[in-house]
Design goal:
57% of the residues lie in helices and 0% in strands. It is mainly α.
């Protein structure tokens, strides 16, 4: 898909280049697709052509929790619940 914008050419100069602006708009669009859960992180990596740590930093700056952080939060919650139960496994009711 291609999205076009009509922006006056006088907006851009050597200090604010059209190419840099286009890259930021692309980055923003990909991050918003991640936030909306329309893209997976591996797809965003390919589209942006960045390393995993760079995508993680972009996501965190945009207020999006990377998968690793979500897993860490779930793991912490499970550990907290297990500690509250005294480390006893949950009873199975068949």
């Amino acid at each position: 898909m291609r999205i076009g914008l009509d922006i006056p050419s006088g907006v851009f100069d050597d200090e604010f280049r059209a190419e840099d602006f286009a890259a930021r708009v692309r980055e923003f669009a990909v991050l918003e697709l991640l936030r909306a859960r329309r893209l997976h992180e591996h797809e965003a990596l390919q589209m942006l052509g960045v390393e995993r740590w760079e995508l993680t930093a972009l996501m965190e700056r945009a207020g999006i929790d990377p998968t690793e952080k979500q897993f860490d939060q779930i793991k912490g919650e499970l550990e907290r619940l297990a500690a509250m139960r005294g480390g006893r496994p949950a009873r199975r009711e068949d």
